[in-house]
Automatic annotation (TrEMBL):
Listed GO MF terms: 4 iron, 4 sulfur cluster binding; metal ion binding; rRNA (adenine(2503)-C2-)-methyltransferase activity; rRNA binding; tRNA (adenine(37)-C2)-methyltransferase activity; tRNA binding
Native organism: Candidatus Jettenia caeni
Domain of life: Bacteria
Annotated residues for binding of S-adenosyl-L-methionine: G164, E165, S196, S219, L220, H221, N295
Function: Specifically methylates position 2 of adenine 2503 in 23S rRNA and position 2 of adenine 37 in tRNAs.
Similarity field: Belongs to the radical SAM superfamily. RlmN family.
UniProt binding sites for [4Fe-4S] cluster: C115, C119, C122
EC number: 2.1.1.192
Annotated active site: E95 (proton acceptor), C338 (s-methylcysteine intermediate)
Name of the protein in its database record: Probable dual-specificity RNA methyltransferase RlmN
């Protein structure tokens, strides 16, 4: 039997855990001791917290639990990428991915069970949205990865680019970011945290007000509204102009550059003309463009363009003075690359 979500320590801020300590007649400094066990020393159980009195450990175990989730399976690939299948308390499963690039070790986390966005090229949205993850369920993905690393490796970066639309689960995502960023938490600097969004305008506005120096990535994928709406249904409501305006506000209030993600899909958004339109669209905007050939999804017909076409696209953008990175895909052999993460099982128990 799982206890309710709030009783998981990974779902709590320092102040919330201090309140729990006070409620069982303990001094508040115990909260920092407990958190240090979890976030620094890799404890997964109160019994491992050897400097806490036995009686306190027992009282804590009655009231709360350390983890809500477990790692079901771990799949590894030669390029150092590892995919974690994480089981949630209600039986649903989500995925997170560990990516290695020299000293940079990144975890890519999911924020929802499924996704409502239904982008035409992405496996994560195929079953629709089941529910939001709570903050602890997000934090635990990073913790599972951190606890799995050998002693000579350190988790350095976190990207919110797994299953789900992070800004559609705003409060839980921000709470998770504050825990991941906190000195008493995972201690990962804001500049090493990136949120990727399909273009949730209200979420971008709210994020700009948070006084968090996190990076913002936009899944743009098209240079005009007609093309974008064909592959990203939510674009019919938002529109590219409004998204770009929101990113400019974000840049002004945080000073952080914006990244635009652009997956290249053959016959859809990858022609010379598309490159020219994209260059016109982003002219004068402080940003980086990340180009990525589409990772094919079995159920969809889309294909990536030829290598030549990809290079031509990249060259045109560079000729216009834009900052472009052609990204290598990682983890596609284990279906851990962008857009390949999917739900393993959906629990419809209790739904009407
Ligand atoms: N919902 C957010 C977070 C998901 S991030 C967002 O849209 O940004 C996952 C990234 O992978 C997004 O940029 C998404 O557009 C991209 N992606 C989805 N399917 C893909 C595919 N088949 N090949 C390559 N990238 C894909």
């Amino acid at each position: 039997m799982y206890k309710t979500e709030i009783s998981s320590i990974t779902n709590m801020s320092l102040a919330e855990l201090e309140a729990v300590c006070a409620s069982i007649g303990e001094p508040v400094y115990r909260a920092k001791q407990i958190l240090s066990w979890i976030y620094n020393k890799g404890a997964t159980d109160f019994n491992q917290m050897s400097n806490l009195p036995k009686d306190l450990r027992r009282k804590l175990a009655e009231k709360c639990q350390v983890f809500q989730t477990t790692v079901d399976t771990l799949t590894q690939t030669k390029d150092g990428t590892e995919k974690f299948l994480v089981r949630l308390p209600d039986g649903n499963e989500i995925e997170c991915v560990l990516l290695r690039e020299g000293k940079r070790i990144t975890v890519c986390v999911s924020t929802q069970v499924g996704c409502a966005m239904a982008c035409r090229f992405c496996a994560s949205g195929m079953p629709g949205l089941e529910r939001n993850l709570n903050a602890g369920e997000i934090v635990e993905q990073a913790l599972h990865v951190k606890n799995h690393l050998p002693p000579d490796e350190r988790l350095t970066n976190i990207v919110f680019m797994g299953i789900g639309e992070p800004l559609a689960n705003y409060d839980n995502v921000i709470k998770a970011i504050r825990i991941i960023n906190a000195k008493w938490g995972l201690g990962i600097g804001a500049r090493r945290i990136t949120i990727s969004t399909v273009g949730n305008i209200r979420g971008i506005h709210r994020l700009a007000q948070e006084e968090l120096q996190i990076n913002l990535a936009i899944s743009l994928h098209a240079p005009d509204d007609v093309t974008r709406s064909k592959i990203i249904p939510s674009n019919k409501k938002t529109g590219i102009k409004n998204i770009i305006a929101a990113t400019q506000e974000y840049f002004q209030s945080t000073g952080r550059d914006i990244s635009f993600e652009y997956i290249l899909i053959d016959g859809m958004n990858a022609s010379r003309q598309d490159a020219e339109s994209l260059a016109r669209l982003l002219k004068g905007i402080q940003c980086n463009i990340n180009l990525l050939p589409l990772n094919p999804i079995e159920e969809f017909n889309f294909k990536p363009p030829s290598r030549e076409a990809i290079e031509t696209f990249c060259k045109i953008l560079k000729k216009h003075g834009l900052i472009v990175t052609l990204r290598r895909k990682k983890g596609d052999h284990i279906n851990a690359a962008c857009g390949q993460l999917r739900l393993q099982s959906i629990n419809f128990y209790g739904k009407d």
